[in-house]
Amino acid sequence: MLFRTATVFAAVVGAIQCTDSKEAQKACGELEEALPELVAHRLQLDYTGEILDFWSLTVQDEKPACLVRPKTTQDVAETVKILNKHPKVQFAVKSGGHDPNPGHANVDGGVLVSLNDMKGATFNKEESVAYVKPGGEWNDPLGDLADAGVAVVGGRLGVVGVSGLVLQGGISFLSAQTGFAADTVVEWETVQADGSIVTISDESDPELATAMRGSGSQFGIVTQFTMKTVPVGQEVWGGMRMYAADQVDALFSALHDFVPANNEDPKAAIIPTDLTAAGSLPLFLVFYFYHDAEPPMEGAFAKFLEIPSTLDTTKTQSYASLLQANGASAGLQSARQSFRTFTVPYVADAPHMYNEISLKFKSILDDFLKSPLRLTAQCAIAFQPFPSIIAKHSQEAGGNAMGVHPDDGDRLIIETQCSWALPSDDELVREMSKEMEVWLKAKVPEWTKGQVDGLYLPYFMNDAAGDQNVTGTYRDYAALKALQKQNDPEGFWSARAGGHKY
Ligand SMILES: Cc1cc2nc3c(=O)[nH]c(=O)nc-3n(C[C@H](O)[C@H](O)[C@H](O)COP(=O)(O)OP(=O)(O)OC[C@H]3O[C@@H](n4cnc5c(N)ncnc54)[C@H](O)[C@@H]3O)c2cc1C
Ligand SMILES: *[C@@H]1O[C@H](CO)[C@@H](O)[C@H](O)[C@H]1NC(C)=O
């Protein structure tokens, strides 16, 4: 509550001290003329509401000169055409606003294009696809599709935004059955740099379609995704369990069994999360999903379920209500947030690596979390299984920008996440996560006993920090960079809009 009040105050002060460039003011004026009703300026209620809707306070700190909320693809195209006339004005595109990296989905003194008024999905039963609008959160399309008993492959927590997740790759509870969220897209209605509207597909342009799966925001503003649907019926099983610290060994042992076993039981998904909060005992959370009314009684997934928990929300429910419930606690937390990622190989004879990772992160955080100034600070490390079967689906779907291949073996996507209150801690928190990345990089050859040839460990853009060179870790980086340049010769996206770059 305290932080929320402080933010409103900061928004008002920001407005009074407005230092928007003449160019930005001109662009905003032209947008307002062309799209009356859709533009909001500093001090207006709509403006403040939109800024407060960013998940992380690090992004709420940025104050655009104005924002435009298009309702249609035509409105987006018109916005792009006007932005083209003002080459000095920076801009940002916002879907759900969950990217915690400043400068990605918001912009200081520029133009914010929020897709908040374009959301939801419609189902095409004959084709088994859904037409998914680009704005809002996964709860929106999943809620619209629930009655039909189908889902699209998106976030595991319903609150997370649609476009940022699916454009950067996106891992879902259904990924072991379908590939990444991006792999299930068959068409992207996109506004290109010159304001033209195109529909990209494997038929129209296979090279570009592959690039659209995992390149982020560098090829245009997507205004509609045509996504394959997955029959989920009305009953799946899942929820969250919380564990005391003394179960960590059992949990890591179960995780080690689970990663390769997921290839044989793709209906199962987990997010093991190791949480360290200021002033409290460490906690371990696991989000569970099983694509059936009941979980299996034996196998690697069942091994997890035998471990005694201290809190348990798992039950049989619809896919949409599971995602809704999973997101409830992760909604707006009124905190500063950071992500950083690293991909590690699954090493069959290194079952100790998870515990080493956990202990290392805790030791890096120790001094920080001990301070009495940081009572609300907390950090977590997620161990996200990336079994080779996901890459197999990626390849079958036409391939993606990440360039993953089933022969690359099983992997885990490690994500460090922190939330904290003080802006003066921003740098320190980011440095601690960086230290973790440097340590992980050095540890991999140790765990694999020097066998690093043939390891392919691309970074997962969704969980990355803004300074991580994600695309540089992609197998086909050079070709994708050339394709981006060819589609965006003036640098409309690469030099003026936020997000990970080629
Ligand atoms: C609570 C929570 C849960 C999460 N769960 C998952 C999960 O289960 N799986 C997973 O893979 N990731 C997950 N993430 C990470 C998530 O995928 C990223 O944070 C992602 O950026 C969020 O998407 P968004 O739409 O909210 O992004 P935004 O912050 O709105 O945008 C992110 C980037 O995409 C660009 N962009 C947005 N819309 C468009 C568009 N239509 N066209 C072109 N560019 C666009 C923006 O400009 C920005 O650069 C989670 C994050 C949070 C905070
Ligand atoms: C990112 O990595 C690629 C591949 O290694 C490299 O060519 C490129 O210069 C890097 N980009 C930045 C900004 O460091």
From TrEMBL:
User: Which keywords does this chain's UniProt record carry?
Assistant: FAD, Flavoprotein, Oxidoreductase, Signal
Q: Note whether Electron transport occurs among the keywords.
A: no
UniProt xrefs under Pfam families:
FAD_binding_4
Q: Where is the FAD-binding PCMH-type domain?
A: 60-232
Provenance organism: Emericellopsis atlantica
Q: Which family does it belong to?
A: Belongs to the oxygen-dependent FAD-linked oxidoreductase family.
GO MF, one term, reads: FAD binding
What is this protein's record name?
FAD-binding PCMH-type domain-containing protein
Q: Where is the signal peptide?
A: 1-18
